[in-house]
Amino acid sequence: MARDYYDLLGVSRNADPDELKRAYRRLARKYHPDVNKEPGAEDQFKEVNRAYEVLSDGEMRARYDRFGEAGVGSAAAGPGAGGFQDFGDMGGFADIFESFFGGGGFGGTTQAGRRRSGPARGEDLRFDLKLEFREAIFGGEHQIRISHLEVCNTCEGSGAKAGTKPQSCGTCQGNGQVRRMTRTPFGSFTQVSVCPTCSGTGQTVTDKCETCGGKGQNQVSKKLKITIPAGVDTGTRLRVSNEGDAGQRNGPAGDLYVYLFIKEDAEFRREGSNILSALKVSYLQAILGAKVPVNTVDGEEPVMIPAGTQPGTVLTLDNHGVPRLGNPVSRGDHLITVVIDIPTRVSTEERELLEKLADIKGEQAGKGGVEGFLGGIFGR
């Protein structure tokens, strides 16, 4: 039994788009094949992607809520699948009715034949793209190579050799379907199936195009330059129109969907629109205060360390975080956690000065005294 898409993502049926996106990103990170090598992880990853594809699209989600998975399958994804006004476009549903009732009242053989032999939209394609941490933050152009079906230039998609053209199929008379009457104890039923001769196209090619072998399409590898918006994150999906597989019989091409996965950075960590990092300062800088340089995604920036700064203090650099997707002018912050570097060894001169200071503070000195003094200052 197919799993419920809402259960797959772990959200309620009234979840808003932001909840869906957060749930998807969490599960995509968990089950991505490059991260999770456990058996079944890849299948789970595909199921999560399919669930998000459906529920993140308002129209598809409405069909899924009404009809379940059957309402968002390839046969029901065309125009009119959301209601019962036009049964001729409902694919699998129409075939079921035709099988039992011989097409009466649901658009008979002629209408179904036209549907099957007419233009067909090409398949959508998916491409997984890994980005460096800073690429995801600032965006920019990225070149990828894809392989997809394109219309054959020699026969212009007909599949026929130059100077010839496809002929109407003699088996189905151009309808793309064949009917077979079956008698049962409950009466006679008509079974409708795809024509085995023309594979549902309604046409046959006697002299095939030498370039494409009669298919009307060729597999082509090509380079694409895509624009990555600033602020994307793992789970962001970009749609590149008309770069999927070419449609059959002059149908429109499908789309290319680019799924983004962001690599981890050795220095920075991302939390929503904020960037997190750590800054190590000496115990003297923490006590006396200092102005020190810190690395950010924008380059080196000066940061003031207030006198008496404690370990774990978080300093904020406003507007140095991640640009908000769709609004690159607005950015998050860079949050810097201060780490106090306490030396394990000090020079003789430093030790003498520290022991004097310990004496002023009334702290015990001697072996281990420096460590005890510094631990008292920093709560260690």
Automatic annotation (TrEMBL):
Subcellular location: Cytoplasm
Annotated residues for binding of Zn(2+) 2: C169, C172, C195, C198
SMART domains recorded: DnaJ
Domain named J: residues: 4-68
Entry annotated with the keyword Protein transport: no
GO biological process: DNA replication; protein refolding; response to heat
GO cellular component: cytoplasm
Entry keyword set: Chaperone, Cytoplasm, DNA replication, Metal-binding, Repeat, Stress response, Zinc, Zinc-finger
Protein residues bound to Zn(2+) 1: C152, C155, C209, C212
Keyword check for Heme: no
Residue spans of the CXXCXGXG motif repeats: 152-159, 169-176, 195-202, 209-216
Assembly information from the UniProt record: Homodimer.
Entry note about domains: The J domain is necessary and sufficient to stimulate DnaK ATPase activity. Zinc center 1 plays an important role in the autonomous, DnaK-independent chaperone activity of DnaJ. Zinc center 2 is essential for interaction with DnaK and for DnaJ activity.
The protein's name in its UniProt record: Chaperone protein DnaJ
Organism name: Acaryochloris thomasi RCC1774
Source lineage: Bacteria, Bacillati, Cyanobacteriota, Cyanophyceae, Acaryochloridales
Gene name of this polypeptide: dnaJ_8
